[in-house]
Fold:
Amino acid sequence: MMVFLMAGAVQRASAVEAVRVAPDALAIDLTSVVEHYRAESDLIQISTAPGPDGIVRRIAVRAREGGTRPDWIVFALTNDTDEQLERLLVAPHYRLVGSGVIWPDLGASRIAAITASQGIRPEREDAADADIFNVTLDPGSTVTFIAELRTPGLPQLYLWEPEAYKAKVNGLTLYKGIIIGIAGLLALFLTVVFVVKGAVIFPAAAALAWAVLAYACIDFGFFQQLFPIAASTNRIYRAAAEAVLAATLLVFLFAYLNLSRWHVRYSHFTVAWLLFLGALVGLAAFDAPVASGVARISIAAIAGVGFILVVHLASHGYDRAVMLIPTWFLLLVWVTAAGFTINGELTRDIVPFALIGGLVLIVLLIGFTVVQHAFAGGALAQGLVSDTERKALALAGSGDVVFDWDVSADRIFVSEEVESLLLLKRGALEGSIANWLDVIHPFDRDRYRAVLDRVLEQRRGRVALDFRLRAADGQYFWFNLRARPVVGADGEVIRVVGILSDVTDARNTEERLLYDAVHDTLTGLPNRQLFQDRLETMLVFAAQNPIMRPTVVSVDIDGFKEVNDTVGPSVGDSIMLTLSRRLGRLLRPQDTIARLGGDEWGLILLSETAPDRIIAFADMIRRTISTPVSFADREIFLKASVGIALYDAQSSSGQADMQKNAEIAMLHAKQQGGDRIEVFRPGMSAQRTARLVLGGDLRRAVDRGEIRVIFQPVVSLDDRTIAGFDVRLRWDHPRLGRLEPGDFLPIAEEIGIVAELGQYALERTARELAAWQSALEVEPPIFATLTLFSPRLLRHELIADVKRVLSATSVRPQSLKLGFRESMLTDNPEFAAQMLIRLRQLGAGLVLDGFGTGYFSLSQLRYLPFDTIRVDRVFVREPGEGARPGALRSVITLAQDLDMDVIADGVENQANATFLSGMGCRYGQGFAFGEAMTSHDARRFLGATSAAA
Structure:
């Protein structure tokens, strides 16, 4: 019974096929012919390969340690010669080929013991990097070998002729020594360069060189020969070396390309990646295969992402990136070859050693690139220049050119850059001062002569002159001449020397700014200022010429805001452009059309003077606008209200009155239902009078306490807690009841008290905010947003008002947020940008209000210091109500990329809030979180009543 049980516990294996060993075979790869057996006990029975007599025998081999279940390999060798053969059986501990990416095989002792079916027992030879056994094959024998494995895997098994193996080892030893020597010298050289030149790229390059040296020493077994390192410890060193190699590659790429100059996100990303790779070094001590696998993936990622980054920066003209392209491309090729090798697609023995040599070559090329920066510039880099040379270099660096007029010889010299710019032959601008008159613009010639003549006559002074020079193709370029006379011993001017600067771009920009100041940026039509100026001019001419009878026509689209909210601002702009072109085609050359506002046009009609013809023309305008505008696969129908102010020669009305009368008539047409034409009549001014009465009440409303500041909660969508309040104004009129901002703020602008209302709202908001923050010390602190409701508030006095209020109330920095509509920033973007920067420096937060409904460009947003974007309610509607989740998602993603918070306006219910929170929106306001409340209710809502009191 016991024999039966033992037989059942023994693993049996069938006979194997023998491999013939030829006397002249220097090396035989046995990796693919060995048979692997998974252990079921500590004993294995093998059927031997048939010998010359054809008999198959069975042998049993027991594991070195009883009770274990090792893996086994079996193979057979045949010596059919009549002489004894000595061979070396070699199983390397580590082989890069086929080691794998995920949980790679980092090496270990492979064969614990080996047993021969007959003949001399194989003897183990000492070797640090492989299991080597001396195998003897008797003449005419077939020997079956059973090897007990220490690891499940066996990357390679070779049968070597002893002398051939010795020659191979000697050759590889020489190669390894050369590679390690080059790597060591390179690392030492770059370290010396780092000591001499302290720039950050040099320690980064030196660290990379030392990392490659350490990796080569570990891979070549150099450290194992110097120090007794166990196989398990060697696996840790190998994994750590690969992680350090990835980290130094990343550091070099960051330092060499100076990525921190391009964007701070590069620095954050690099630091995070380095911390991750540093953690891998520690992980190698606990799980070397995992650390090695992640490090190998990181090296490939750094090579790939780095190459894309290098090409991107090189395409933008960055010289360092251009110089690094060949080296980084070679690194990408090296990583690709290494990937094929560790996946087992490149199996030649020479491949791993060639990869190490290639890595050293890459570092060598990096060293050459770094050295170019180390010693570029020569004496200039060391500051060994004279004062004269320094001035010459400064002149060359400024882009200006030399202008020298030898008065006595009447000969001008200018640098050849001017002639190259003008496409003229060399020397075309040299010669007499009069020769320049042929290329100077006719309008500038007299001024050019007068300035130079005055310098010669007065024998002092400076020349500061702008003029235009004609190029060979007929184009004119603007130049600025700054020069001074040089007086000789006789008191006469002998030279006029200075610099000539190309100011064409500045002039074009100035002309463009002047054009934009009096023209609409969307349609290119005259704006309100130019329209009023032309109307005033025409009225002056009409007073002198009875035949001229100018008529003012005011045109406004009915309900265009709803159309704009439905189709979106970009389509709305296209509609405005289409309508402007249609109206422009109706006019004759003597007529004028201007865009006075968002959907309002003004026309000065001179081509028609008869009232009936003017009415017919106005009807043509109305019908032109009512013609459908095609958009995608749909048509948009519009209607317009038209107001007409006829010229009255007996009236002393100026342009302001005529324009206002036309607008009053247009408003009257809207009140009558729109899509109609109204001619101004004096009775229509009653409405204007009512507005004046309301304006008088508004002047006294603040003193009477009728203007109230109300607060609408702004909620954090993550946890539904109150994050702040949006501040608005409300007028409790004693006779008309409650009036919303849209009812009285336009009147405040007309009567000039909008600044007073803005200051009142700012002070009340800051005082309430200070009370909230005093009672509730939370992080982040409670904030309040106050939208500046008029472009007139964006003035220099706003800086002083904000500074005074912040100093008086001591609110937390950036918690008092000032909101700006897009339209307030596009009228004068340069001034607006400076104001925003100053406000941010004072400690005020900045909110871009109603983003997505105006004409603000993303390139402008990137360079303005906003910290919050308030998305207009048109983007926040629920699906099925005209919402555009794609546009909303784009706005939120843009804000996150620019490190800005997002407040969604118009959150109607909790489902809407959940949807916005899922898209990454941080704050929301709307009816879902409560309506606007008084300051007392806001204090009680926050629990800040006592502190406020």
Residues 755 and 792 are 7 Å apart (CA to CA). The first helix runs from residue 2 to 9.
